[in-house]
Amino acid sequence: METLVSSWFKDQSLPENYVFPPETRPGEAIVPVSKNIPIIDLGKSVVGHDHRNNTVQQILNAAQKFGFFQVNNHGVSERQNDYSKDPRKGCSLYTSSYNYDNEEIHFWRDNLRHPSHPLDEVIHRDVVGTYSVEVRSLSLRILDLICEGLGLQPGYFGDEFTNVQLLLVNHYPPCPNPSLTLGLSKHSDPNLITILLQGEVNGLQVFKDGQWIGVEPLPSAFVDNIGYQFQVISNGKLRSAEHRAVTNSRNARTTIVTFINPSFSRIIEPAKALVNECKPPLYRAFRYGEFLNTYKAVKGDTEAALKPYKLD
Ligand code: OGA
Ligand code: NI
């Protein structure tokens, strides 16, 4: 295995193969943390019809405008430093990305990746187990709220739309030169929806209207973002926002990410209820596995990922 950044970052200045070209590196520009990305109180969605409608509207607006929002009062117990370090079956520890051997420039991050559903097939540790179950029910709850807002029936995303759940721990050690490198370059997530625990260190940025904006680090909140599949299923109503992770020279940053994915064979297409004569489908049907191959092949070109599936 390639050596983790964590094991050598203290001894070195930034190696050449971590330097991004001028057009994609963060540079010296200061990216302010945005107060506009909505922070939604999920506790309110359980206490009466008006509150619930209000929550639905807030989530839907955020998912349309930013592709990003944060939720608190989410009912998940927070134990973010308790994740498993056990690389067992199906669990892997690696640096930069799965594509280490083929990439010219590496990301300043280390990863632990762990499949987390169905639990009894993959789980060996209670902490990851409890966390995964709770985050799963949070994800399904958020999906139901969005369904309600879009006019899809509750439970629309049962089974094959959501049955692959992955837990990824990103670790970004302090970096000698954050302006030249990235923890993760600009991308949209390939899956349906992502639920991320950012912790208290700043670093996640969203690309909106040609500008980078920072996502406020709120230790008790989950950051949620819309993936490509949800953009397709919503027939373009929701946006899969582009985002990246920057590093900093002072503090290590660890994020815990849950990806909710369809199974490879699931057919993805705009929901029938969201397509009509006035709103023709924007995308053709495809299998999720087919999309993943495209996603890998386009190497982070966010425009190109959905191109083969667009109808004119
Ligand atoms: C990701 C991601 C952001 C972060 O893992 O897809 O966008 O802040 N992570 O770690
Ligand atoms: Ni991402």
From TrEMBL:
> Would the keyword Secreted be found if you checked this record's keyword annotation?
no
- Which Pfam family is an annotated match for this chain, by its short name? DIOX_N
Identify the domain of life.
Eukaryota
Read off the Gene3D superfamilies from this record.
B-lactam Antibiotic, Isopenicillin N Synthase, Chain
Q: Which residues form the Fe2OG dioxygenase domain?
A: 162-262
Entry keywords, A to Z:
Iron, Metal-binding, Oxidoreductase
One Gene Ontology molecular-function label: metal ion binding
Q: Which PROSITE patterns match?
A: FE2OG_OXY (PS51471)
Q: Which InterPro entries match?
A: DIOX_N, IPNS-like_FE2OG_OXY, IPNS-like_sf, Oxoglu/Fe-dep_dioxygenase_dom, Plant_2OG-oxidoreductases
Q: Per its UniProt record, what SUPFAM superfamilies does this chain match? A: Clavaminate synthase-like
Key word Metal-binding present in the record? yes
Family to which the UniProt record says this protein belongs: Belongs to the iron/ascorbate-dependent oxidoreductase family.
> Which protein are we looking at?
Fe2OG dioxygenase domain-containing protein
State the organism named in the record.
Ilex paraguariensis (yerba mate)
